[in-house]
Design goal:
The two termini are about 80 Å apart. Among the domains are: about 85-110 and about 120-145; about 700-755. It is mostly helical. The chain is built from 26 helices and 2 strands.
C-alpha cells in the first residue's frame, strides 16, 4: 500500500529516532530548500558566519577587532615614546661597567686589586645609593627651574598681550586702510566669505501675505481663548509621568504654576529664577488683547479697544454703558486699606536707593529703585500724577535687565495705589499702564503678589461677616476695589480656571452677595463691582446669578425713589453718568440727580446682561425678575432720556426665544433585505446551493472545511493505528525474544541440574565402596 510505505518512510522513522541523540542532523542553511540555488545558499551561509564572527560577548572587555590608523595597524606602528621609567636611565648615567661589576662581580673575570672593584661590597652599595640620590636631586632641581621659568613667561605674556590689545585697538583704522592687496590674501578672503554668498535668505513677503499671516495668528489666538473659556484647552505633558533617572538627586521641589493660558512671553530676564522663566514662557503678552476682545465682544454694553495698548480711560467713563458707577467703603475695612504683601516676598527683594548717574558723555540718567518703601513714598510724595508716571516709566526702562528690581517696584506701586486711590483717582489711571507692563515682564511673581492682596481682603471680609449679618456690611473702599479692576486688565479673566482672576472673581461675587446698600456710596461702589464683574464674564459668557440678584436688588431699592417727581428736569445722556471721584469719598449726599444716575447705570447693566445671556435656554426664567423691576421703573416719572433707556432694556429683556420640547429622534424603518429568487439556470435533478452569491460561497467553504476536517481526522486515526500496530509488533517481538531466553535458561539449568545429580550419585557410590 502506498500510504503504508509513506508512513514507514516518515512517521515510522520519526518514531524510531524519537529518543536518539547521536544522530547526524544536517542544519546547513538552504540544504533542504529546493527554491534556493547553490549561489544563494553560499551567500546566506557566508553572511551567517560573518554575523557569528562579529558578534561579541557583552560581558567581555576584550576587543578582538584590530584597530588601525591611516590604514596601518596600531600594533605594527613604531612608537616614539620611551616606556621606561625615569629611574631606568640611571644605569646609563652611573656607568654600565660599574653596574656589571657591581651586580655580578665580573662573572668569571678576576677583578683588579688596584681598581674600585676591589672595594668591599658595602662601600660599593653606598656609592651606588649616593650616585642615584645625586641624579634624582639634579632632575628635581631642573624640573623646578623649568616650572618657574614657565610661570614667569606666562605672566610676562599676559602683560604683553594686554598692552598689545590696547595698541591694536588704537591702530585698527590704520590697519584697515592699509589692507593687503596681495592676490593670495584676496583669494583667501573670497573663499572665507564664499559660503555666506551662497546662502539663501528669506523672501520678502508682500502686503497680502503679511495680512494673511496676521489673520492666521489672530484666528489661532481666538481659538485658544475659546478653548480656555470653555475649559477644553489641551494641556501638554501635564499628566505625563515624570520618570527619574539613575543620577536624579530628587531636588525638583519647585512647582511651575501657570498664570495665563496664552502662548509665549517675549523675553525672560537673566536674574529670574528658573521656575519663573518657565512659567513666563507659558504666559502671553497678548493677555491684554484678550481682555480687550472680551470687553468688545458685547456689542452694546462694553468698550471696544482694538489696539494692543489700553489707554485705561474706562476707569473714568464707559462709552456705551455706565461703567462709572461705584462704591463705598466699609467702616471696619477702611483701617485695613493698605496692601500687605508677605514678609518673605518683601525681604527677598533687596532695594536700592533712587539716584541719577551720568553715563559717558551723553548725560543720560539711570533711575535706581529705592531700598525701602518709605524712601519710595518720600520720592513720589510731592509729585503729580503725570510726573509719577514719567518717573515709573524711567525706572522700568533703566532696570529692564533685573527682574528682581522690577518686582520690588511692582510691590511699591501696589502699596502706593492702595494709599492714594481714595484721594487721587488720576494716579490710578496714570499708573495702570506701567503695572500692566510689569505684569507682562514677570507674570508669575506679580500674580502671587496680587493673589496675596485678594486673599487678605477676602479674609478681612470673612471676619467682618462673622460678626455681622448679611447686607449689614458696607462695601470696602475704592483702594480695595481698584485691585479687581487691575486684575481684569492684566490677566485673562475669561479662562475657565485662572490662578489670579478666579479668586478675584470669587471675591467680587462675594461682595455682590453679602454687602448691603445702606449709604449712597454703597450704591456707587456696588455698581463699580458689578461693572467689573460683568467685564470678567463678558467674553466667556459665563452666567452669574450673583450679578442678576444684585441688579434686581439695586433697582428695586426703596432709597432710589425720587423725593419730588415734579421738579425732574430734562437731562441728557451725558448728564446721567456717575462721577468716578465719588468712589473715594466716605460721605455722599443722596440727591435726586444722583438717584437718576444710579438708576441709569443699573438699567444699562441690565441691558448688557440681557445681551450677554440671550443665547441661554433659560433666558426667559432668568429675566423674569428683571422684567418686573424694569416695568415698575417705567411707570415712574423719570426724564424722557431715562425712560427711553428703560424701554430699550425692556424690549431686549422681552426677546422671545423659540424653544421646542425635547422629542426622541425618529429612526427610519429598517430596510428589508433584498432576497434573490431561488431558481437554477440548469436543472439536472441534483440538489444545488440556493440563495445569494455570498451564502453560496459560505456554504461551499463550510462544506470544504468539514470535508477537510473529516479527512484530517481520518488520517490521524490511521496514523494512530499504524503506530499502534508497530508498537504491538515490537512488544510481541520483545515477548518472543524473552520467551526464547527463558527457555534457553531453563534448558541450561536442567542440564546443569542433571550433571549435578549425576555427580552426586557418583560420589555416593564411591563412598559406599569405601
Amino acid at each position: 500500500n502506498k500510504a503504508i510505505k509513506k508512513r514507514k518512510a516518515t512517521l515510522l522513522q520519526e518514531y524510531v529516532l524519537r529518543n536518539k541523540s547521536s544522530t547526524f542532523m544536517d542544519k546547513r542553511i538552504g540544504e533542504f530548500d529546493a527554491a534556493m540555488n547553490p549561489d544563494e545558499k553560499m551567500a546566506a551561509r557566508l553572511a551567517q558566519e560573518r554575523k557569528i564572527s562579529q558578534k561579541k560577548n557583552v560581558f567581555s572587555l576584550n576587543e578582538d577587532e584590530e584597530l588601525t590608523h591611516l590604514g596601518k595597524s596600531i600594533n605594527d606602528m613604531e612608537t616614539h615614546d620611551d616606556p621606561r621609567s625615569d629611574d631606568e636611565d640611571l644605569y646609563d648615567k652611573v656607568g654600565r661597567d660599574f653596574i656589571e661589576k657591581t651586580n655580578f662581580g665580573g662573572f668569571l673575570t678576576k677583578a683588579d686589586p688596584n681598581s674600585d672593584a676591589a672595594k668591599s661590597r658595602r662601600d660599593a652599595i653606598e656609592q651606588l645609593i649616593a650616585e642615584s640620590k645625586k641624579l634624582k636631586y639634579e632632575r628635581q632641581v631642573e624640573k623646578d627651574e623649568n616650572f618657574e621659568l614657565t610661570e614667569k613667561l606666562d605672566k610676562d605674556w599676559r602683560q604683553f598681550q594686554s598692552l598689545l590689545a590696547a595698541s591694536k585697538n588704537k591702530k585698527t583704522a590704520v590697519v584697515d586702510n592699509e589692507a593687503s592687496t596681495d592676490d593670495y590674501d584676496v583669494l583667501v578672503k573670497q573663499l572665507k566669505f564664499a559660503p555666506l554668498a551662497g546662502q539663501a535668505s528669506e523672501r520678502v513677503k508682500t502686503e497680502d501675505e503679511i495680512a494673511k499671516a496676521e489673520k492666521k495668528r489672530l484666528e489661532k489666538l481666538e481659538q485658544e481663548r475659546k478653548a480656555r473659556a470653555q475649559g477644553t484647552e489641551a494641556k501638554k505633558d501635564v499628566h505625563k509621568r515624570q520618570l527619574a533617572s539613575a543620577d536624579d538627586l530628587d531636588d525638583s521641589f519647585y512647582k511651575h504654576e501657570r498664570i495665563t493660558g496664552t502662548s509665549k512671553q517675549s523675553d525672560s530676564d537673566e536674574d529670574e529664577f528658573e521656575e519663573d522663566e518657565q512659567a513666563d514662557r507659558l504666559t502671553g503678552v497678548d493677555s491684554k488683547d484678550e481682555n480687550d476682545a472680551s470687553t468688545g465682544s458685547d456689542s452694546e454694553g462694553e468698550n471696544d479697544d482694538a489696539s494692543e495698548e489700553d489707554s485705561y480711560a474706562d476707569l473714568e467713563s464707559e462709552k456705551e454703558a455706565s461703567s462709572d458707577n461705584e462704591e463705598q467703603e466699609d467702616d471696619n475695612m477702611t483701617n485695613a486699606n493698605k496692601v500687605s504683601v508677605p514678609a518673605k516676598n518683601e525681604n527677598r527683594l533687596s532695594e536700592k536707593h533712587i539716584k541719577s548717574k551720568e553715563i559717558g558723555a551723553g548725560k543720560s540718567t539711570v533711575a535706581d529703585i529705592p531700598e525701602t518703601e518709605e524712601e519710595f513714598s518720600r520720592l513720589v510724595e510731592s509729585k503729580g500724577a503725570c510726573e509719577k508716571a514719567a518717573l515709573i516709566e524711567h525706572m522700568i526702562k533703566s532696570n529692564q535687565s533685573s527682574s528682581k528690581k522690577l518686582e520690588r517696584l511692582f510691590v511699591y506701586l501696589l502699596q502706593h495705589i492702595s494709599d492714594t486711590a481714595d484721594t487721587d483717582i488720576h494716579v490710578v489711571d496714570k499708573l495702570c499702564p506701567h503695572i500692566y507692563s510689569l505684569v507682562q515682564l514677570s507674570p508669575t511673581v506679580c500674580g502671587h503678589f496680587l493673589l496675596d492682596v485678594i486673599s487678605e481682603k477676602e479674609e478681612q471680609l470673612q471676619n467682618i461677616l462673622s460678626r455681622k449679618s448679611r447686607f449689614s456690611v458696607s462695601y470696602p473702599s475704592f483702594s480695595t476695589l481698584v485691585f479687581l479692576k487691575l486684575i481684569g486688565q492684566c490677566y485673562s479673566a475669561s479662562d475657565s480656571s485662572h490662578m489670579v482672576a478666579t479668586p478675584a472673581m470669587l471675591f467680587a461675587s462675594h461682595l455682590l452677595t453679602c454687602c448691603g446698600l445702606k449709604d449712597p456710596v454703597d450704591f456707587l461702589r456696588g455698581i463699580f463691582v458689578a461693572n467689573v464683574f460683568l467685564e470678567y464674564v463678558s467674553y466667556s459668557r459665563r452666567f452669574s446669578p450673583e450679578l442678576v440678584a444684585f441688579l434686581s436688588r439695586l433697582l428695586s431699592h426703596s432709597a432710589l425713589k425720587l423725593k419730588d417727581e415734579r421738579n425732574v428736569a430734562a437731562v441728557t445722556e451725558s448728564d446721567l453718568k456717575l462721577p468716578l471721584k465719588a468712589l473715594g469719598c466716605s460721605q455722599v449726599e443722596m440727591t435726586d440727580d444722583l438717584k437718576l444716575k444710579i438708576v441709569n447705570a443699573g438699567v444699562k447693566l441690565v441691558e448688557r446682561c440681557a445681551c450677554l445671556y440671550q443665547t441661554l435656554p433659560s433666558y426667559k426664567e432668568l429675566c423674569d425678575p428683571l422684567i418686573v423691576v424694569c416695568q415698575k421703573l417705567a411707570e415712574l416719572a423719570y426724564p424722557e432720556t431715562l425712560k427711553a433707556v428703560i424701554k430699550n432694556t425692556l424690549a431686549k429683556l422681552s426677546h422671545k426665544i423659540e424653544r421646542k420640547p425635547l422629542k426622541p429622534s425618529k429612526k427610519p424603518p429598517p430596510m428589508k433585505p433584498l432576497l434573490e429568487p431561488k431558481f437554477s439556470m440548469k436543472y439536472d435533478g441534483r440538489k444545488h446551493f440556493s440563495g445569494g452569491e455570498k451564502k453560496v460561497e459560505l456554504k461551499k467553504l463550510n462544506y470544504q472545511y468539514k470535508k477537510e476536517m473529516k479527512g484530517a481526522m481520518r488520517e490521524v486515526r490511521r496514523d494512530n493505528q499504524f503506530l499502534a500496530q508497530h508498537i504491538l509488533k515490537e512488544q510481541m517481538a520483545r515477548d518472543a525474544e524473552r520467551k526464547d531466553k527463558v527457555k534457553r535458561i531453563y534448558k541450561e539449568l536442567a542440564s546443569q541440574e542433571g550433571e549435578y545429580k549425576a555427580l552426586k550419585r557418583k560420589k555416593e557410590k564411591l563412598s559406599n565402596r569405601m
